[in-house]
Amino acid sequence: MSASEPARIRPGAEPEGPVLYAEDGWSWAWILAAPLFCTAAGLFEWLTDAPVHWLMLTVCAIASALCHGVMIAATRVHGRVRLTPTAYYQGTEELDLAHVQQVLPPAGGGPAEASWQTARTLGELREVPRRRGAVGLRLDTGAEVRAWCRRPAALRAALVDAIGAADASPGPA
Question: Which pTM does this prediction carry?
């Protein structure tokens, strides 16, 4: 397996050792949003002496909660980020930090794109999701990839520290 083809890990498995940076997908609390809105609608109908549609509101609450559950489970697998001193995990993809040669500088605001902005995105997703930022990485093969998260500046700083610490550690004697 080459450095450009990172290994797969079991979804949701926590890496061993200290975690330097972590992000999860949506919170499971969002599964309660639809039932709460449907309860509020039922109470509004009851308070205004309108006919209360409890059956329809219950069906909508259950169906919406099930749909939210599927989306939440997906974001908790595919939107998960973990950085340890030895590896970077994006969704179910694992990238050994020994294969990362450089954390690339942020893209300038000018019209010219940095080469890493069109590189392969780590994880299973084809593009960086909305409201997420990317961090460019150059691998030891010369390939460039994009790591992504909600707080790209914090991830960049953690990656620079982790790569610097890995470079400073003594090799095998």
Answer: 0.75
